[in-house]
Amino acid sequence: MKDLLEKIHAEIETFKAEAESLTEKGVKAAGARARKSTLEIEKLLKEFRKVSIEESKK
């Protein structure tokens, strides 16, 4: 679970950096990378929910 949380944190940091590049510097390619990152975050959060539920049943 700790490894999963580290992956989520890292992906959120990636999203923040790409979103900042898009909004502040106007780098259009950063927008695509930020959107890709949101898909990965979504996948990781779904995995977290699944693991969290399993852990709470123990």
UniProtKB/TrEMBL annotation:
Family, similarity comment: Belongs to the histone H1/H5 family. HCT subfamily.
Name this polypeptide is given: Histone H1
Pfam families (UniProt xref): Hc1
Taxonomic source organism: Flavobacterium azizsancarii
InterPro entries: Hc1
Domain of life of the organism encoding this protein: Bacteria
Reported function: Might have a role analogous to that of eukaryotic histone proteins.
